[in-house]
Predict the structure.
Amino acid sequence: MQIQRIAIVGGNGRVGSAIVEELHNDEYFKQLTAIVRDTSTSGGNLPVTALVKANFSSHVSLVAALSGHDAVLSCVPGGATDFESQKLLIDAAFAAGVKLFFASEYSANVMSSQYALLPCQFVGDKPRIRQYLEDQAKEATIAWTALNGGPFFDLWLTAGPAGFDIANRKATIYGTGNNLACWTPLPVIAKTVRNMLLPATIPKIVNRAIFICGVKAVTQNNILAALEAETGSKFEVIRADVKKIRQGAMEALGNEDWKAATRGLTITHQFDEEDSVANFWDLVDNETVGVVPVSVREAVRTTLQDMEERP
C-alpha cells in the first residue's frame, strides 16, 4: 500500500495543523488536500496543495471530494467526532476508493472501560467509531489505523489539567503524585503520523491502533522536580484528594453536567492510582514508528523554551 495523496479533515485544529505541517515538509507526500465545509469562508493558512469544499452531510459530495486520494486523515477534535458524521466520512472514503482511513483518536486507550465513562459530548464517539472501522476491515471494505500517545505533554503542562501553574510557581498534586502515565508532546505525535504513512511502516500499522509514549517516567512528582530544576524556583504545592474529585465527577455525570464530569474523570483517569488508565506502557510500540522517548526533564525544558519563543 502506497500513501502519497492524503485528504485531511479537521486540518485547521491544533492537532491537524501540526500534522499537516509535518507532512508538508516531507517530499514523499505528493498531494495534501484540506477538505473543508462548503459553508467555510476560509481554508486557513495550511500548507496544502489543494483545498476542496464539501457538504459533510452529503455522501455524494464527500465521495467527490475524497476521490483520487490514497488516505483520509481525520483530525476532527473532541466532541466533533460524533459517530454519524465519521461513519458518513468512512463510507464515503470507501466508495471513493480510498485505501486507508486514519481515525481521529490521538488519545489513550479509547476501548477501555474508563474511557467509556467520558461524555461523548466532549470526547466524541471514538470507541464506537473504532468498532465500526474494525467491522469494516473484517469485510475488507477499507483499511484503518489510529494513533494514541496519551495527553499532549506540552499542552497539558502549559494549559491543561496537569496541575501546574508555571507563571505563578504553583502545583496541584492529585493523590500521591506518583501515578505513572504515558504522555507525548504534540510535535512527536505529528512526526509519528508521518512515519506511520511511509512505505516501510504501512504494513506494520494497518488495521490496528498504534500506541506510543514520548516521555519516560511521567508522574506529577517527576514533572514538579523538573520544573523546579529548570526554573530555579520552588513551587507552592497544593494537595488534592483525587478520590473526592472522582466522586464529584460521578455526581456531575448523573446530573448531566458534562463539562464538570469530563474534567473530573480526566483528572482521576490520569492521577488516581486505583482507577487510572494513564499507564499503557504494555501497549506501547515506539520502535515500530520511530519514537525515542525523552526524559521528563528534557520534555519540560523543551516546553519552557517553546513558551518563551511563543509570541
Notes: The longest strand covers residues 31-37. The chain has 13 helices and ten strands.
